[in-house]
Amino acid sequence: MILQRRMASSTYALLRSLERRKDKLEKILKGEEKPKPISVNIEEIEDLEERKRWEKESEWENITFAKNTEELKNEIDTIEVLIEKAKEIIAKVKKAVKIPLTVKIRSGWDKSSRNFLEIGYMAEQEGVDAVILHPRLKRDGFSGKARWEDISELKSRLSIPVIGNGDIKKGDDAKRMIETTNCDAVMIGRGSLGNPWIFKEVNAAITKEKIPNPPSREQKGIILLKHLYLAVKFKGELRGVREMRKHMGWYSKGLAAGSNFRKLAHQVNTFLQAKALIIDFFHLKDEDSLGWAFE
Ligand SMILES: Cc1cc2nc3c(=O)[nH]c(=O)nc-3n(C[C@H](O)[C@H](O)[C@H](O)COP(=O)(O)O)c2cc1C
Known about the structure:
The chain is of the alpha/beta class. It folds into two domains: about 1-205, TIM Barrel (Alpha-Beta Barrel), CATH 3.20.20.70; about 215-295, Non-ribosomal Peptide Synthetase Peptidyl Carrier Protein, Chain A (Orthogonal Bundle). It has twelve helices and seven strands. A seven-stranded mixed beta sheet has the order 1-7-6-5-4-3-2. About 30% of the residues are buried. Bound molecules: flavin mononucleotide.
């Protein structure tokens, strides 16, 4: 998530906690700390004791309302009931934890239930620190264009910060989202898959600094190797390598002979198999110089 400089004073706590989290992230990457979850889906929030335990270890908690289950939808037949249910959830979590709380929502379930304004307003009234909007309907999945105009509308109605999300694929998209919707910060999803460089690019675009050059094939390969190493370190070889199959696919997007690489990546089961495939595909000739990636 990229935060803009101009933010309401009410968000300082959130900003500070993100800063602390940045330190934490660095420690996690150095292997000095284990990652701690801070974002939960609504299906998982009922255990408030768990929330309190997490509070000691996280600096900011987010509830994702976007991932409504079909069962929940079946329980809810009107917008009023849905808002009531959401309000109950937020109030419970708000009471249970003292760290800043955000909620992430979509524009609505389907065309007949576009409820982001009602839910956003209710969240503000319940004391939530910021609302994140992914402006697609649940029915749309990830298809079609995100309706940035919904972000503008929500921003114009709320006093708390609104974080815009949807279709940020490069630095300029983030700049445009902030300019056109007036949102306070942006959240990046698919644009970061296989492309962790996007965050530097977005920061440069927002602060009007020179946009960094895109990474070379070799630079991509080196970071992918580091990613592979960390995935295995944190998740164990089998799970780490299996999860990395899709990341290998994302990092190879747009590169020559990528489709054959993706086919082979889909079959790797061990760290050494994945490493050899990456070294070959990304033309990493000097294997000895890659030692740092495995520290
Ligand atoms: C692989 C993947 C995993 C995701 N996991 C989560 C998640 O755990 N929680 C969440 O709130 N959103 C999750 N999302 C949704 C994104 O945060 C974001 O709302 C969505 O991708 C739209 O933004 P984009 O157009 O920048 O991708 C996920 C998306 C993808 C593609």
